[in-house]
Amino acid sequence: DQALRLLVEVASTHVELNTITYNGALSACAKGGQWDQALRLLVEMASTRGELNTITYAAAVSACAKGRLWDHVLRLLAEMASAHVGLDTITYNA
User: In the chain, what is the straight-line distance between the N-terminal and C-terminal CA atoms, in Å?
Assistant: First the structure.
């Protein structure tokens, strides 16, 4: 929750949110088991930034795996493949 509050605070200061800031928030959600927040951030990031990379997806996959949401995990892996985002050992181990 703290990472998400910080992301909102940064956005309110008109500092540009980028892939790195989103990935940090996604990773915090994954570590905290907040898969629902991670998926919301992923959708927001895709609609505003459009720069989803391996780290982005790995964090979202990790959050969904911790929530045992295997359908979401498979959907994210398929989305990575169709977007030509590299699947690596970090993603598979998430």
Answer: 21
